[in-house]
Amino acid sequence: MQNPVEEVFPELVTFTVEPLQENPTTSMDNAQFSHRSARPGSDFTVTLTLRDFQSSSWREIIEIPLETAWEGQKLEIVITSGPNLDLLTGGQRAYPVSQRRKFEAYLDARRAKRRPDGLYISVLTASDIFLNQTDATLQLPASLSRVARTADPARYSQRATREILWETHILPHRLVAGLVAGLVAGLVAGLVKRSFTITD
Description:
4 helices; 4-stranded mixed beta sheet
């Protein structure tokens, strides 16, 4: 096997440092959810109480449109960082060189990761993911998955995950310290989660 990064030895790396106009540190004091159940076509509202580094507070209100197609599914509203959302939905913490045939493929995988700044609010539902090394397929028929995993268990795998039905990114260029510190009630491993249902 060839090393896809063997020729990537830069002789010079340059970068610039620019001063920020304001301190990006932000904390999240509270997260309120408007409903535990709602009808299709209505809006589900999430209200966040936030505070900047000087303790000035403000609110962010996010309206989530509820789709008819979601009716009957077990849904979760999740507030978390980009890297955490990647992991919740089948992403990896690291990308071994053995799983990449070209350096460009490694770069593409890194670019596909969500931003670490700000917050992601998303609607998730339970799913399963089939992995061909790092190529992922959601909800692959069980018979095909079983045949592949039996033929080459080192290459193919399957695990429970979550599928994203809707998402939005807010507070770009801010670092939400409260997400890491666990200051919000219901915050577990860097996320706020609320289960809800859509009724007819």
